Amino acid sequence: MNARARAGFAAAFRREWQHLRQDRADRLLVTLLPLLMLAVMAWLFAASVMRDIPIAIVDLDHSAESRLLARMLDASPGVAVVAQPPDLAQAQAQLRRLEVYAVVLVPRDATREARRGRQGTVFAYYNATYLTTGQSAVRDIVEAVGAWNARLLAGPIGRQVGPAKLRAPPIAVQSDILYNPARSYELFLLPLVFPALLSLGLALAVAASLGREVRDGTLRAFLGDAPWAAMAGKVSPYVALFSVYGALGVLYLALLRGDGVAGSLWLLMLGQPLFYLACAAVALLFVGLTRDMGTALSAIGLSIGTALAFSGATFPVVDAPLFTRVWNLLLPLTAYIKLQTQQQFVGAPWSVSLWPLGTLLLMVAVAGGVGGWRLIAAARATAPAPGQGA
Description:
By secondary structure, the chain is mostly helical. The protein is 66% helix and 5% strand. It has 17 helices and 4 strands. Strands 2-1-3-4 form a 4-stranded mixed β-sheet, sandwiched between helices. The longest helix has 31 residues, at 185-215.
């Protein structure tokens, strides 16, 4: 960086820092508000694991064994039997009223069939419109029924049928949970929510900062003789601040709420400024293309603001429409979440994470390059004609 570029960077940095010191509203938007959002999200999801999800059991068998199942379900930490309606119709009515999120049905003669050496069936129905809650309830129901089966085989049914008729199925499926064995929705959601909120806050702040120069007619004076260095200096305070917030979020989840960092902490820390610099480049792109603060802020809300839904971490993009898959690849959050998952939770080799890091660098170059070029063109278009005054 030559002397002119260094001077332009320093002048823009001081100019933006001075603005933040003088404008209390903007200062709070990039200091207090992001930290407050992180604290609120951390508090909301501090429970980590769902407990006592209300369910109903319809016992049409009316046997000692079926009553044992009801007690075992109620003793399960994840669910609580809050109702035992006499028939399935009443249980479905409770589902529709959202009084329960799952229903267990023990058919008539289910245990009698088991005593005869046949297979009995217990049905579980869950409300998939509340997908996370319903699936969590079903997992605990399946585990409780499995424990109930083991007790029946070792107890009266096993003795009545006899060991000759008791045999395991020829092929069994054993599933083990990898990476988040506690099934904590805190460790699933917060690593997604933290960067999603911070990236939106940074992009809005950068767009407002650059758009302010366009709105006030000071763009040419701001860019000066080293426009690229001036733009870099202007976004640097925001990238630095939000990188610190992002690092604090990673350390909070890894050291206080999780089991540490499975991979490279240094790569995770390197990913912070790259991710937020990529988001700043997207903001620069929208300001450069629209040359209007309001339009640029709206475009950021539609892109960065909805990035979590298109990142592939919450809703799958496998075999999605072409637009969804392309949009997924264009979002900085997608690359960052891959990096975070690989290094914080999975413990992938560092070489694997070079791809998302390179993707973020490419976004900085392309989005920032196009946006900066358009902003410089806008400044030149407002330059006074030869022979005219400034």
